[in-house]
Design goal:
The structure is a homotetramer of 132-residue chains. Chain A is α+β, with helices and mostly antiparallel strands. Helix content of chain A is 24%, strand content 38%.
Chain lengths: 132, 132, 132, 132
């Protein structure tokens, strides 16, 4: 899967289109995606913080596409775990996912979300069921 | 906190407004929220499935407001865990959160998400930091 | 599976024998197990607290046997999540597991661990792979 | 904290002594610990597999001592998450923990457990409460 194919695959989902996700890199063992900021992502308007559910969504979806991009099979996320480290301020977010293990029945990917200053905002991992 | 106050508190967040969340019940140890369906929530258009990130968002936010509604203090989610059980088909989702423990430093709530047929779609729990 | 069969099944594992686990109840949707206290379980001798790894072990194994006892298929734990609520003081612990969902590929059980005063010490959930 | 101090600190816990843990390295951002095999660790005697609760214990405790060894403050684990990747066969296990974030209120460490062939058996992360 090349970057153009990854972007097309991401864009199948109406939620991904609403988020405006941009696939920016495919590594040997992972991928990078950029999320542009928009006001509807805000949790607390006083802080202008991005909602924790958006960060969780990024960790879920980026891990899944990392496994697909690296040749694994995925039908669905079965389990998701997110740790929140810092409040997300307005601006684009960079999401980097790395394969932990591609297995016959399940695969695992670890994902980190960074702000524009390269500060770690959230990190987590998803467990994904293989097809069949 | 009564139902009207809970709804007002939810509506402070632009993301919650975009989701169109409706607070429907406050119990002694939890709350219930309804999410109306909209097309931008879809993950896979072939299945019309609601995105796992949306389910994760519901588990995160509903647990947080359950703690607030039941008198606990919360500044932020620190950890979120979601298990996905079934594909979510189009239609409103019912989200029920129950307090596991309200603590001095952290509180925990468990949340379940059901479809219109009362099928369990996802369940999970959040750990929330107290103020101070 | 009756209580005697559950106990026999637990006793196959040398680690369970070392822990001295006693199966005490099978419910329609779960099981109860008692862990007797022993000094080797202690984490911090100043507090005489039971080690968090022991509580995690109880949540892992009790959920797995709950699924077996309720007719589900399990080959292995694939994912385990534990929240710690209170320091465990010396004395027997009561472990109660409840099925969240028995599925074709994976099953989920939620487990709570209580001390002798019925205080909740830890709670969590395991995701278990089915055979085949 | 040097290696001798880390070993002394580990040996305060009767459970760690029973496990026979050996601190082998302190890195800038983490630590390494070895667990020798013993028969009481076995889950399924037919496979001679090490119990998932033991792997969870290693991820819990090694992450906690990584934060201590790297200058963080820890009073207790508040949340633990473990993914199981492969069945653990008899033989010593190598446990490597890496700091994800040291915070004022909570810290996070990620830990991997390897067998003698350097195969990844389990990985996970703990969230640890700071003192005060």
């Amino acid at each position: 899967m090349n970057l153009e194919q990854l972007q097309k695959s991401l864009d199948i989902s109406p939620f991904h289109c609403w988020l405006g996700l941009q696939a920016t890199s495919i590594f040997e063992d992972g991928i990078e995606i950029i999320l542009p900021w928009r006001e509807e992502l805000v949790s607390n308007p006083a802080l202008q913080s991005t909602h924790g559910g958006i960060l969780a969504s990024l960790i879920d979806l980026s891990g899944l596409y990392a496994i697909l991009a690296c040749g694994g099979s995925v039908t669905a996320t079965t389990d998701l775990h997110v740790d929140y480290h810092r409040t997300a301020i307005p601006g684009p977010l960079t999401v980097r996912s790395k394969i932990v293990k591609i297995g016959r029945k399940t695969s695992t990917a670890a994902t980190e979300v960074f702000d524009g200053n390269n500060k770690l905002l959230a990190s987590g991992r998803g467990l994904y069921l293989a097809a069949g």
